[in-house]
Specification:
The complex is a heterodimer.
Chain A lengths: L4 E3 L5 H6 L3 H7 L2 H4 L3 E3 L3 E5 L3 H13 E2 L2 E5 L4 E3 L4 H5 L9 E3 L9 E3 L3 E5 L4 E4 L4 E3 L2 E4 L4 E2 L17 E2 L5 H17 L2 E7 L9 H15 L6 E7 L8 H13 L2 E4 L2 E7 L4 E6 L4 E5 L2 E3 L4 E2 L2 H4 L30 E3 L12 H19 L12 E8 L2 E7 L21 H19 L4
Helix pairs in contact in A: 4-10
Chain B lengths: L4 H12 L3 H20 L10 H21 L10 H30 L3
The chains are: A alpha/beta, B mainly alpha.
Bound molecules: flavin-adenine dinucleotide.
Chain lengths: 444, 113
C-alpha cells in the first residue's frame, strides 16, 4: 500500500468558474494541470543542482507536495541565464543581463543547502556533501548539469580564454565576456585565420558553436572585410547538427559563406604561445593548424562525482559518461527512486534549457506517480529547441524531438523552423529569457 | 508548450521589466496630454489638424526602418510573412501613439480649429 495520500484540490472547478477563470483557463491548459491535486507525503526529496532543471523541479514539487522535505543542493548564489552567453560573446548583450539572484526563484518551504555534492551512495540512498555532511533521500533528482572537460585538450585551460586569440563561450559568463574581447581584438587586426570547433562528445546547446561562427562572420561582413578573414570549422562528429534538414541546410550555408568544414576531427591540443591547434581524426592521425583566433568548445560529460557513482550508465552509448536514465520517463534505469533531468542525462540530444522546459512536467508527474506506487504516466518526446542565429539580427527557431527521425516540433504554427526570420531573432533577443524565468518558477 | 495564466503573466512581466521606465514615461505623456486637452474641451473628432496626422504617418513609416535596428537587427532581415505582419502592426501602433499625443497637443498649443 502507498504511504502517501492525495488531498483534495485547493481550488475547485466550480470556484474557478465562479471567479470567471474557468473558461479562459480551460482554453489555455490541459485540465489536469489547472485542477492539479497536491500530494500529502513525508518523503525526503533531494534535488542536486539548482540551475535550470533543479530550480524548475524545486518549484514544481514544492507546489504539488505537502508535508515533503524538499532539499536543494546548489553552491551558487547567482543564477546564470546561459543561453544569453552567446549574445554576450557576440557583443549584442551586456553580461549583467544574464544574471539574477537565485533567491528570486527559490520557492518557500524548501531547504536550500548552499554547498556542493561530492558523492552519491545509490545503494544507501545517501548524498555526501563537500563538507562531509550527508543527506538521506527517498527520491533523488539529479540536476547537476554537465562538466566541461577542458583538461582533455592538451595545453588548454579556461584561464587562457581571452588571451592569445582564444575564445570559449561555454566556460562562464566571464569567459563569454573575454571571448567577446578576443573576437574584438582579432577583428581589430583586420584579417587572419579563425578556427571554430565542436568536440567529439555530446555538448550543451549543440547550436552554440555554430552560432558563434555565424555571429563572428556577421561582424566581419559588417566591417566589409570578409576577404581578409579565413574561417574553418572543425567538428568531432560526422555531421553539423542532429536534425537532418538543418544539418543539410548548415552544410550548404557554410559552403556558401566560404567557411571550410572539417568533419570527424576534434581539437586535441593547443599551443597558446605559438597560436597552433592540433586536430585528431577518427583514425588517430593528427593535423596542426595555425590560427589568429580560435573558438574552443571542450568535451563534456556528467560531473566526476556522478561518474564515480553507481548512477552512471554501465553500458551502451552513454557508458561511463552520462546518467543512466530512461530517455522517455526520465527515471533511472536501475534505481527507480532516482530521476534525472537536464544536461546530465544520457540522451541522444536534449542538452538545452528548452528540453528542461519539456522534461520538468514529465519528471514532476512521474515522481508523483512513483510516490503513489502507480505506473509512470508521463513520457518525454525528446523535445529540444535551438534558436539558431544565422546572422546578428536573424535566426531560425529550430524545435525538434528524438522521435520519428528528429521530427520538427514547432511550438508556434506560424513560425516555420526552416526559415530564417527577424521574428525568431526577436524571440531569442527578448522573449525566450522571460519564458526561461517562468520555467524556473515552474509555470511553463 | 502550454502556459498557465500565471505563466503568461510571469513571461509578460519579465519581458516588459527592462522597458518599464520607457513604457511608463510614454504612457504618462500620453495620459497627461490627453487629460489636459480634454479638460479644456478637446474632442478628437471636432478638432482638425492635418500636420499631426502627417507627422504620425511619417514617424510610423520610418519605424519600419528603425524598429528592426532597435532589436539589434535590420530591415533587410525582415523577410517572412510573419516578420512583415509583426513589423507593420508595430509601425501602425507607433503611428497611432504619435497621433494620440500630437493631435491633442496641437489643440493645446494652437487652440480649437
Ligand atoms: C553558451 C551556451 C548557450 C546556450 N544556448 C542555449 C539556447 O539557446 N537554448 C537553450 O535552450 N539552451 C541553451 N543552452 C543550454 C542551457 O543553458 C542548459 O541546457 C541548461 O542550463 C541545462 O540546465 P541544467 O539544470 O541541467 O544545468 P545548469 O543550468 O548548468 O545547472 C546545473 C546546476 O548544478 C549545480 N551543480 C553542479 N555541480 C554540483 C554539485 N556537485 N553539487 C550541487 N550542485 C551542483 C551548478 O552550480 C548549476 O547551478 C546554452 C548553454 C550555453 C553554455
Amino acid at each position: 500500500m502507498s504511504r502517501f495520500t492525495l488531498s483534495p484540490p485547493s481550488l475547485g472547478r466550480r470556484q474557478l468558474l465562479k471567479l470567471g477563470l474557468g473558461a479562459s483557463a480551460a482554453s489555455l491548459l490541459p485540465l489536469s494541470s489547472v485542477f492539479a491535486n497536491t500530494l500529502s507525503t513525508k518523503a525526503r526529496i533531494v534535488i542536486l543542482g539548482g540551475g535550470a532543471a533543479g530550480m524548475s523541479m524545486a518549484n514544481r514539487l514544492a507546489r504539488r507536495l505537502s508535508g515533503a522535505t524538499i532539499t536543494v543542493v546548489e553552491p551558487r548564489e547567482l543564477h546564470h541565464y546561459q543561453p544569453g552567453w552567446t549574445l554576450v560573446a557576440s557583443g549584442v548583450w551586456e553580461a549583467e543581463r544574464t544574471l539574477q539572484p537565485n533567491a528570486k526563484f527559490r520557492p518557500a518551504g524548501i531547504e536550500w543547502v548552499q554547498g556542493q555534492a561530492a558523492g552519491i551512495d545509490a545503494g544507501q540512498r545517501r548524498i555526501t556533501l563537500a563538507d562531509s555532511s550527508t543527506l538521506d533521500y527517498d527520491v533523488l533528482v539529479v540536476a547537476t548539469g554537465l562538466q566541461l572537460n577542458y583538461q582533455l585538450i592538451d595545453g588548454m585551460s579556461p584561464d587562457l580564454i581571452g588571451s592569445n586569440g582564444i575564445g570559449s563561450v561555454y566556460a562562464s559568463l566571464d569567459a563569454a565576456r573575454r571571448t567577446r574581447d578576443a573576437i574584438d581584438a582579432w577583428l581589430a587586426e583586420g584579417g587572419g585565420k579563425g578556427i571554430f570547433t565542436s568536440p567529439q562528445t555530446a555538448i550543451k546547446c549543440a547550436g552554440a558553436p555554430i552560432k558563434m561562427t555565424f555571429t563572428t562572420l556577421s561582424r566581419i561582413k559588417a566591417e566589409g572585410v570578409r576577404d581578409h578573414f579565413n574561417l574553418d570549422y572543425f567538428t568531432g562528429g560526422g555531421g553539423m547538427f542532429s536534425q537532418p534538414w538543418i544539418n543539410d541546410f548548415l552544410k550548404q550555408r557554410f559552403d556558401r559563406e566560404n567557411i571550410t568544414r572539417h568533419h570527424s576531427q576534434y581539437l586535441s591540443a593547443i599551443d597558446a604561445g605559438a597560436k597552433q591547434a592540433q586536430f585528431t581524426s577518427k583514425d588517430g592521425s593528427t593535423e596542426v593548424r595555425d590560427y589568429d583566433f580560435i573558438h574552443v568548445v571542450p568535451p563534456m560529460s556528467a560531473p566526476d562525482f556522478v561518474k564515480d557513482s553507481d548512477l552512471i550508465a554501465q553500458s551502451g552509448a552513454f557508458q561511463g559518461e552520462w546518467l543512466d536514465t530512461d530517455i522517455h520517463t526520465l527515471q533511472h534505469n536501475r534505481y527507480p527512486e532516482v530521476f534525472g533531468i537536464g544536461d546530465v542525462i544520457g540522451a541522444p540530444i536534449n542538452k538545452t534549457a528548452a528540453s528542461v522546459k519539456a522534461q520538468a512536467p514529465v519528471v514532476e508527474a512521474n515522481i508523483l506517480a512513483y510516490l503513489q506506487e502507480k505506473p509512470l504516466p508521463a513520457r518525454h518526446n525528446g523535445y529540444t529547441s535551438c534558436p539558431l542565429i544565422t546572422d546578428i539580427g536573424k535566426a531560425m527557431l529550430v524545435e525538434f524531438g528524438y522521435d520519428n527521425n528528429m521530427e520538427f516540433l514547432p511550438s508556434f504554427s506560424f513560425i516555420d523552423p526552416k526559415e530564417e526570420s527577424w521574428s525568431a531573432w526577436v524571440l531569442k533577443d527578448y522573449l525566450l529569457q522571460p519564458a526561461y524565468y517562468a520555467m524556473l518558477e515552474g509555470r511553463v | 508548450m502550454t502556459f498557465s495564466l500565471a505563466g503568461i503573466f510571469s513571461v509578460l512581466s519579465n519581458a516588459i521589466q527592462p522597458f518599464l521606465v520607457l513604457i511608463l514615461t510614454i504612457l504618462a505623456v500620453l495620459v497627461a496630454v490627453q487629460f489636459t486637452a480634454r479638460i479644456r474641451s478637446y474632442r478628437t473628432k471636432a478638432h482638425q489638424y492635418m500636420p499631426a496626422m502627417i507627422v504620425a504617418l511619417l514617424v510610423g513609416a520610418s519605424s519600419v526602418w528603425w524598429l528592426p535596428l532597435l532589436t539589434h537587427s535590420q530591415l533587410a532581415f525582415v523577410t517572412t510573412a510573419i516578420d512583415w505582419l509583426a513589423l507593420i502592426a508595430a509601425a501602425l501602433g507607433v503611428a497611432l501613439l504619435v497621433w494620440l499625443v500630437l493631435h491633442p497637443l496641437s489643440y493645446l498649443i494652437r487652440g480649437p480649429r
